[in-house]
User: Fold this.
Amino acid sequence: MADRAYLERLTKDLVDQGKLVEAGWNGLRLAAIPLNTPAAQLEEMRAAFFAGAHHLFASLMCVFDEDEEPTDADLRKLDLIERELAGFIRDYEMKHVKTEGSA
Assistant:
């Protein structure tokens, strides 16, 4: 697993290049996908990751109010998305991340 500083540098570099989704994919790959995963499986996983990102982006573009500035309703929608994704991460970590200790 890569160290946090490396992932942060990689993410910043990719974001600076306009590749935020690619940065997310690389972070996931480094943090959670075994190095010996077959190329075909990596390709399918990357496609699924980008499809999810595309769905979220397209949905946001459709549901935001047309004002130039974010409205209270827009901010509420973002908050709900954040809660949904945080719940997913919490559930994922409970199932897949090893904890330290002997409890």
Remarks:
- The chain has a mean pLDDT of 87.
- The chain has two domains: 1-63, 65-98.
- Residues 65-98 form one domain.
